[in-house]
Amino acid sequence: MKRIALFVLTNIAILAMISLIAQLTGLNAWLAERGGNLGALLVLAALFGFGGSLISLAISKWMAVRSLGVQVIGEPRSGGEHWLLETVRSLAHGAGVGMPQVGIFPSPQPNAFATGASRDHALVAVSSGLLNLMNQSEIEAVLGHELTHVANGDMVTLALIQGVMNTFVMFLSWIVGNIVDRSILRDNAGRGIGYLATVWLTQIVLGILAMLLVMWFSRWREFRADAGGARLAGRERMIAALERLRGAQDAPLPGQMHAFGISGGEGRAWARLFMSHPPLEQRIAALRAAPE
């Protein structure tokens, strides 16, 4: 969940910075004056939209390491680190991807993530809490789940989907801003406060709708990664790992984790639409129902 939250928040920050620069330099006004040229407007929206998303993807590994305090394992300093490296190496070979960097980050809660812009240059990290809570077979299943994300190119796909969403959010907000400014407020210069306010409001509303689609994709890919983890490490091991995670959620979560919704589907039904992971009960049920 943290990996997705960092990606989305970084993407939002980049888009906000681009939007601010466009306003300060007068680019928004220039675009408003040329609102009739929808083709050019769409191209510019795509440049901005995909630009923010691809920058977020490019720095995702760096952001994860810096934000979570990941200690990347170079030379293993213990038997546990040596086992972790060799297990990832074996699973990466089974998944058909290059050996990723492997790291551990400090957190009392069981957690893991994989990130990176390439299948062969990824980072897989686990929390100290996960290493303390799970046995080796369960950890292997979690690592298989994360390496399936890498093999499926999920971060790249997420970046492309986010880029498409960004493009249409910006494009439609500019169009709506022009309509309000010219047709309703009668400001043909396209520079009025009505235009700016409408663009910002429309971006917020459409951004929320776009987030619903992105989170739906994220939940769908979790089922796929569970299936991949079961294939690489064994279905019963994957189920046991998810059961262990479900049991760990009975304890209160730190505020930072709770803000990211790492509880995995707890709360009201509408809130689950904004979560990147399905409830653990659904994931376990899907694995049990899968054919042998």
Q: Any descriptors?
A:
single chain; 292 residues; mainly alpha; Zincin-like
* Shape summary: elongated
Strand arrangement in the largest pleated sheet? 1-2-4-3
Query: How many domains comprise the coordinates?
Result: 2
Percent helix range: 55-70%
Give the DSSP E fraction (strand runs of 2 or more residues): 5-15%
In total, the number of strands is 4
| Topology pattern, helix = H, strand = E | HHHHEHEEEHHHHHHHH
Secondary structure tally, helices: 13
| Unreliable residue runs | 250-265
N-to-C span: 29 Å
Structural class: mainly alpha
Report on the biggest sheet.
4 strands, mixed
Mean pLDDT: 79
Written overview of the protein:
The chain is mostly helical and 292 residues long. It folds into 2 domains: 2-63 and 154-251 and 261-289, no CATH class; 70-151, Metalloproteases ("zincins"), catalytic domain (Zincin-like, 2-Layer Sandwich). The chain is 70% helix and 5% strand. The chain has 13 helices and 4 strands. Strand 3 (112-115) and strand 4 form a beta hairpin. Helix 1 (2-24) packs across helix 3. The longest helix is centred in the last third of the chain and has 41 residues, at 193-233.
